[in-house]
Amino acid sequence: xxxxxxxxxxxxxxxxxxxxxxxxxxxxxxxxxxxxxxxxxxxxxxxxxx
Length: 50
Hints:
The protein has 50 residues and is α+β, with helices and mostly antiparallel strands. The protein has helices at 19-34, 40-46, and strands at 4-7, 13-16, 48-49. The protein is 46% helix and 20% strand. Strands 2-1-3 form a 3-stranded antiparallel beta sheet, with helices on one face.
């Protein structure tokens, strides 16, 4: 099974083994790099197989 990925508008590509992994990575990226809180729902809407 392929993992999941989220491509941030800044160009960073975040990957995870499953949806929970990539959502956590995206939330951490948003917080540390962009100083913003990304909800689980927002991150899930951006995820795609990868």
